[in-house]
Amino acid sequence: MLPASAYGQSEGPVLTGRAAIERIIGNTLVLAPTKPLPTIKVRSYIYFSPNGRTAMQMTASSQEDQDEMMEQEAGNWSIDDQERLCVVAEGTTLRDQDCIGLRIAGNTVHSVPEDVFDGAIATLLEGNPHGL
Fold first, then answer.
1. How confident is the model at residue 38 (pLDDT cuts 50, 70, 90)?
2. How far apart are CA 124 and CA 126, in angstroms?
3. Theoretical Cys-Cys bridge with 47: which of 37, 70, 104, 132, CB 3.0 to 4.6 Å?
4. Domain ranges in the chain?
5. Angstrom distance (rounded) from CA 29 to CA 128
6. For residue 69, what pLDDT is reported?
7. CATH classification code of 4-125
């Protein structure tokens, strides 16, 4: 029998709700533009620490090997009563729009509703490879 990926499906189960959030904890979410920009490379990395903290790093660099620009922010994550992931910047109050549902297939992360990551591809990296 062929593995599920041979039929165009992702390997492993599709995770939603709390199971999807638990998959993210201790790992890094990477957001990149769906369509590459012609002269600049942009990435956002968000590490979800097991202690409820988040660290985000946004990077932008020229395709022509110019210096990389970097911005960092800290915040907190939680799970609400609807099993959505909530993320707020440090020092701000949680609002309903700070929470999203998640669906994970393999290492690809989808927001629920889908338009939250509009214009970006979200993938999951194991651990904290950027030391956030």
1. confident
2. 7
3. 132
4. 4-125
5. 10
6. 79
7. 2.40.128.360
Single-letter amino acid, residue 76: N
Q: Are 31 and 43 in contact (CB under 8 A)?
A: yes
- Contact yes or no for 88/76 (Cβ under 8 A): yes
- The answer to whether the CB of 77 falls within 8 A of the CB of 94 is no
- Are 59 and 72 in contact, with CB atoms under 8 Å apart? no
Which amino acid type is present at position 47? Y
Q: How far apart are CA 20 and CA 22, in angstroms?
A: 5
Residue-wise burial string across 73-91, b where 16 or more C-beta atoms lie within 10 A, e elsewhere = eebbbebeeeebbbbbeee
Residue 33 C-alpha from the chain's centroid:
12
Measured in whole angstroms, the distance separating CA 102 from the mean position of its chain's CA atoms is 10
Residue-wise pLDDT for 5-28, tens only, equals: 333 444 679 999 999 999 999 999
